[in-house]
Backbone:
């Protein structure tokens, strides 16, 4: 199992992640961390009618072991650069991105 060490910021609702997506890729995965602390995520879905955003939520929820309903794109809905919020019930323990 691969260990993730994702850069995040705490918010009043949980954490936020800055993400750059690569739609229409040959695979769907977290590809790594870019130099500017932005998470690069490859998606097989096209950037049409929210399908890439839906797949991004699926990939992040699976990687962070949270429900998809806890993951929301809060900025960049129509852009490759996005900010995603991960809501947690217990703020003393955010999802473990490591």
Residues:
């Amino acid at each position: 199992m691969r260990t993730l060490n994702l850069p995040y910021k705490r918010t009043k609702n949980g954490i936020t992640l800055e993400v750059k997506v690569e739609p229409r890729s040959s695979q769907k995965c977290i590809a790594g961390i870019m130099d500017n602390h932005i998470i690069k995520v490859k998606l097989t879905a096209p950037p049409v009618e929210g399908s890439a955003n839906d797949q991004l939520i699926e990939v992040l929820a699976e990687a962070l072991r949270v429900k998809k309903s806890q993951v929301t794109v809060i900025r960049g809905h129509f852009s490759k650069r996005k900010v995603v919020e991960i809501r947690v019930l217990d703020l003393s323990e955010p999802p473990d991105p490591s």
